[in-house]
Amino acid sequence: MACFWEGIRSSLSKDDKNKLGITDNTIPNLIKTLKNNNTLDIKVLWQNKPLTKKALDENFTHIRDYPIDSYRNGYLCSTCDPFLILLCNTLNVNIKHEYLGNIILYSIDSVNTYIFKSNRGHFTYHTKM
């Protein structure tokens, strides 16, 4: 049920955890840490296009209002997901999300890319490039 968060957690290197300030490797702590890093100052391109102010505002609100304990009920990752955008921005990494054969790109000026794969019911971390 927590495959989105497990995928994110398994993608994080020791350096990533240090950069985020994660000391407790639990899913609730991961979510809390991401919420603490929430910002409107996003430099990420989605599908090679900048996010609109409305999208930035909605993403910020989504992360701010996300109830930490709801991870047990699953997480519906969107095609322009606020948490993936925040992760890309905070860690300064590109993210390639392969959803049912479609490629969704979250990009920032980085040489590192994290690859995630998902279908209608499961999300996994695949690899780093």
Instruction: Average the pLDDT over all residues and give the rounded result.
Output: 93
Beta-strand residue fraction: 15-25%
SSE arrangement, N to C: HHHEEHHEEEE
Find the count of extended strands (DSSP E, 2+ residues): 6
Q: What number of structural domains do the residues give? A: 1
- Main β-sheet: number of strands, strand sense, barrel status? 6 strands, mixed
Sum up the overall morphology in one term. Answer: globular
Rounded to an integer, what's the Rg over CA atoms?
Answer: 13 Å
Secondary structural class = alpha+beta
Instruction: Compute the separation of the termini in Å.
Output: 27 Å
Helix content: 25-40%
Structural descriptors:
alpha+beta
Characterization of this structure:
With 129 residues, the protein is of the alpha+beta class. The chain has one domain. Helix content is 38%, strand content 22%. The chain has helices at 3-11, 14-20, 27-36, 53-65, 82-91; strands at residues 45-46, 49-50, 94-99, 102-107, 113-118, 123-128. It has a 6-stranded mixed sheet.
Short description:
This protein is an alpha+beta fold and 129 residues long. It contains 5 helices and 6 strands, in the order αααββααββββ.
Furnish the topology, listing elements before pairings.
Elements (H helix, E strand, L loop, with lengths): L2 H9 L2 H7 L6 H10 L8 E2 L2 E2 L2 H13 L16 H10 L2 E6 L2 E6 L5 E6 L4 E6 L1
Parallel strand pairs: 3-5
Antiparallel strand pairs: 1-2, 1-4, 3-4, 5-6
